[in-house]
């Protein structure tokens, strides 16, 4: 089956189609954790953590991330839905650029319940919906990340997202897509092991990729721009960061990595996100970018 462009376009305004969104500040969507839980196991991190969350702590950690993000960006909220315990990881529900939202087709039925509320929210806020075919799983910013200048899309396959859907993504923005193959089940989403940063930097965990993917990455980012993290850092979700300009919001990280980032001009803000690590995610997975990636790329250095 082909693609469906659900047109809520500026050329056909009606009562039901709000104007396309325009942002002059980096803007993100978040979803509060009132229904967050580890109710099932769909990634290795969730195993052993079934119903072992501290909900008050999760809420406090999420609020702190929300507070820190609000200091440097606009934050919108989508209401949490009962029965969607992973919806707090709203970054996996879509990829947005230029007001077009490629919406996810989750690999696991447990997360498909998140698709409809997010699709509705995006549509109600004026985004054009780019549907990806049901039979080719696609998990939003979990597996598709723009480079910092928005000229290229990095898309992963191997665990959740299918290789076949990468070309559908390419069509949404008419941009080149580079496919990367994930080979370690602990790093089941691209955003667990790969983070394009402002200033043309890339933070990544090389062992999460096959050899050909590592070559593609190394060809795109010169050595002085690559920040390779080690296994200990990677398993603390060091690559699952929110980067706006020189600020990097992340879970607690080794002092060595924080120093390396500091030397490159980044201002690292560490937030304890332990309760979300139990579900298999960290800072980056808890937000969905709504504004264009280029808005957050500038770095003073
Ligand atoms: N439980 C969610 C899932 O497995 C967690 C997602 C967090 N993802 C991430 N890329 N860090 O889908």
From TrEMBL:
Pfam families per UniProt: DDAH_eukar (PF19420)
One GO term of the biological process aspect: positive regulation of nitric oxide biosynthetic process
Lineage: superkingdom: Bacteria
This protein's UniProt keywords: Hydrolase
Gene Ontology terms for molecular function: amino acid binding; dimethylargininase activity
Annotated segments matching region Disordered: 1-24
SUPFAM superfamilies assigned: Pentein
InterPro entries per UniProt: DDAH-like
Amino acid composition bias (Polar residues), ranges on this chain: 1-6
Protein family membership: Belongs to the DDAH family.
Annotated protein name in UniProt: N-dimethylarginine dimethylaminohydrolase
